[in-house]
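Table 4 source record.
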Amino acid sequence: MAKIPFGPTYEEMLHPEKMPQDIREKALQAKESNELDPINLFNITWKDESGQVRKVVLPKELTGTEANIVVMLGKYFPSGSHKVGPAYATLIEGCVDGDILPGEHTILGPSTGNFGIGVSYICNLMGYEAVVIMPDNMSKERYDRIRQYGAKLDLTPGTESDVILTLQRTYELKKDPKNRPLAQFELMPNYRFHRYVTGNSAVEAVQGIGNGRIACFTSAPGSAGTIAAGDQIKQVFPEAKIVALEPYECSTLADGGRGQHRIEGIGDKMCTLIHNVNTTDFVALIPDDDAVRGLKVTQDGAAILQEMGVSEEQALALRDLFGVSGICNILGAIKMAHYLRLGPEDNVVTIATDGFDRYPSVLEDLERRYLETEAFVLRRWAKDIFLSKNTDHVYDFRDVQAKQQLYRQKEKDWLPFGYSQAYLDDMRTPEFWQREFGKIQDYDREILRLR
């Protein structure tokens, strides 16, 4: 049997300085020289070489709000997206539990893109065959990257909003005992990674900015892994508001809407199983084309941003940092800063899941749809999208009765997949989520022992 190259613990992903120095040095060297060296498992972290969270504080001339908008940058993770973190966490927990064995099992990765890329990358490094199940109308760059890492594609009809078909296909394929799904929408390693690693990294990211606290955290749920960071943020800053963002065209959490949209990676027509809706305070809607047009502005509109008062250095530095979902998260952060009437000492934290490298075809489609994207158009888009103080379509879910809508949506989505009412009822309690979170120490101990 092939040896499993056990990688980092949760603690080492949060604090890479705690891993053995020789491993850290080799990992940093491989990050630049050999993307497919398994030592890159130890580069799964939000931190840079100096131990600082990779982030950008957006210029207020762009955001139009006094609050500080702090964006954590996922593009610097191995494979180019933070989704590689939950992919690794889910695979390594399966290895620790003895449920996934090298040479015996093929890994299934249901995804709309970034998680599938992460699964294909991790399986390449850890020696597993992988099949990524995803809709057949995602960006070309995503398919190319998955194939580049050696995984096979199993495509289902539709787009982002048809992810339920990928789940159904995954359930069909897992009937073969050789197939093991890394089911990001329903397995708790995704929750554990983001609550512990992303949540605590967010707390570190605001140190020295404004009042050093987090007033609001915005994240658009795809699998609802990233928004789990909010659970940890609330542990440190109880006043923080956690906001789930959805496409205006697919407002499933807000009001049951289930339309098609263009924001890849979010808005999957469901309340995912691992979404702890107890800690979701608000749901806010973002028009999908605002996210795509906003990406065009940050990518190709440096001159326009300078006209708005952004320095040349800042305008150029924003290029390549974001994808469509990252812009959606930023627009949600701006919207909530206005809605909550935040001031210059307040910090709103959000996430850029990936960078621009997997979206050129999306902007090519934008060019076809709009015909004109000259400077005068970008100038109007920049003002209408980023500087708008529009606070429409913000839904308050802090009330216990309002939460019932989210509980019912989860039941509607997951009872058909075989989960019991008792299990879903248990998820309504804070104790359920604390138990799941508490398993991190046991997994870390076992990873170190087996490593």
